Amino acid sequence: QVQLVESGGGLVQPGGSLRLSCAASGIIFSITDMSWYRQAPGKQRELVASITSGYRTNYADSVKGRFTISGDNAKKSVYLQMNSLKPEDAAVYYCNAKPRVSGINYWGQGTQVTVSS
Predict the structure, then answer these.
(1) Distance CA 105, CA 58 (A)
(2) What SS3 state is found at 28?
């Protein structure tokens, strides 16, 4: 059974930083593409950043230069370092795993990020 457990969300002031973590189980992490999505109230879920099993990364234009996605095969974890946070970054952030063998999307339960003074 695939499980994705996110952590690290919270309240931060504009300009601050947060680091999200996602621990995966039940998948072969080394052949799985991992992503972070977010969904703000009244908006569609959007891709924030992704990292392939070959460690190739991709970012939404809105977060380029501020967010960094990274992965650790040994810990079966993916991280999202978020710097220079803006109020518009506030959302529920979801971890996504897509094993290359099956192509099935798996989702975590989400972690809330609030950016407010």
Answers:
(1) 17
(2) coil
3-state secondary structure of 9: coil
Look at residues 61, 33, 47 and name the one whose alpha carbon lies nearest to residue 91.
Answer: 47
Measured CA to CA, the distance from residue 115 to residue 11 in angstroms comes to: 6
Q: For residue 85, give the nearest of 16, 20, 19 by alpha carbon.
A: 16
DSSP 108: -
The pLDDT assigned to 53 comes to 85
How many CB atoms within 10 Å of residue 101? 10
**Chain-centroid distance, C-alpha 18:** 12
* Residue 106 tokens, joined: 């798996």
pLDDT digits (tens, 9 = 90+) for 39-86: 999 999 999 999 998 889 999 999 999 999 999 999 999 999 999 999
Specify the residue for token string 């960094």.
Answer: 68
